Amino acid sequence: MEKYKEILARQLPAGAVDAVFDLIIQNKVNLKISRKRRSKLGDFRPAITGRAQQITVNHDLNPFSFLITFLHELAHQRVWSTGKKRIKPHGEQWQNEFQNLLNPFLVPEIFPAEILNNLLKEGKKLFASSGADHGLSRILKSYDNNENKTLLEQLPDDAHFKLPDGRTFKRLQKRRKNYLCFCLTNGRKYIFNPLAEVIPAEEH
Ligand SMILES: [Zn+2]
């Protein structure tokens, strides 16, 4: 179980790991972290003979896009599980499921302010049409890989750093492949992927 959460922690905002883990268990879905696909960010496949229902999400998404994509696909699973067929893929029922799933994550501990404000304003409507080039998709893309980023593994030991949401951390020791980090903002410890993108901060 801890191993599974460590894998999730490489993909998701730190504050979302436990809740996503619980959603996976409650809804009995497999989450497969997929190779990069140009055609889609994720998908949902209902259970077929001998195989569990499965959600896939591309591995290369930034943590915020990864979380939103996972919840998007889980909303498809929820709609499917009601047994009602012949409903619009992103119709009202899907939108309600998505909004319900998204609500607990709409907090500043998980999303940076600019993403959070968009989600609070538009919420379910934002994702009703797939591939729509709305303002939020551009903001989300700005969190994807770019050249002048700093990776956690590039910092020295005990270095302080920030996340886009403003929380400050101190890098502690390496644990197997990941770094244990102490959050100076809330006093909790988190496991980070060495490739996590961070903002170096000055020590006080
Ligand atoms: Zn969809």
How is this fold's topology laid out?
Layout (H helix, E strand, L loop, with lengths): L1 H10 L5 H10 L3 E5 L7 E4 L8 E5 L4 H19 L10 H11 L10 H10 L12 H7 L8 E2 L8 E3 L5 E8 L2 E6 L5 E4 L4 E4 L4
Parallel strand pairs: 1-3
Antiparallel strand pairs: 2-3, 4-9, 5-6, 5-9, 6-7, 7-8
The protein binds zinc ion.
The site of zinc ion has 5 residues, from helix 3.
What does this structure look like?
- The protein folds into two domains: 140 residues; 51 residues, SH3 type barrels, CATH 2.30.30.
- The chain is 33% helix and 20% strand.
- The protein is built from six helices and nine strands.
- α1 crosses α2, α3 packs across α4 and α5 runs antiparallel to α6.
- The chain is globular and about 55 Å long.
- The N and C termini lie far apart (37 Å).
A few lines on this structure:
With 204 residues, the protein is of the alpha+beta class.
